[in-house]
Amino acid sequence: MPRSYVREARKRVGPKRARIRPIIERLLHKHADAAIALRFGSDLELLVSVMLSAQTTDVNVNRVTERLFEKYKTPEDYLAVPVEELERDIFPTGFYRQKAKAIRGTMALLLEDYDGEVPSKMEDLLRLPGVARKTANVVAAELGEPQGIVVDTHVRRLAQRLGLTKEEDPVKIERDLQKLVPREYWGIFPHLLIWHGRRVCIARNPKCERCVVNDLCPSSRV
What we know:
This protein is mainly alpha-helical. It is 57% helix and 0% strand.
């Protein structure tokens, strides 16, 4: 897209700081059901679900965890079976060897340092094997203590299209969003962009004519 067009489009919609609250408010109204798609019944199940979700779909993870969580209910359960058995149980999620190793390492550390409980602080979550910033952000937010903003492919694409960031690196995108998004929305904001990205602002064929923020979006085609 020519730079002149981008510049003119940004002038048309106004500065991002003035647009962020209207964007959030409209998306909240449009996607009132926006929430994490993973199914879990405890903090431990949440952590395992998010760890398994790397490089696969939430639908696939939910299919696997439906049986997995009947068998494994405590950190001790994940350590009580041979690693090969755990690998078989999570095989459909892909990268099962790495994931099994990370899960077992995480369970051991939870028992050793956290009394078997899932911590909610970022610095503690990032100590867990296989837990990178995105996973830690998801877990912290779902535990009610968001300390950052989750950046996945939908969040990156929509944040760029909405002119909220020019960055490509997820860490830098998160930094830009943290400066703009009011802290009370850090937990829900990624869900709003994810659901809007799945339903309306589709990667190859965005439905701009149906978009509730098209007048606030410099990439709008209407």
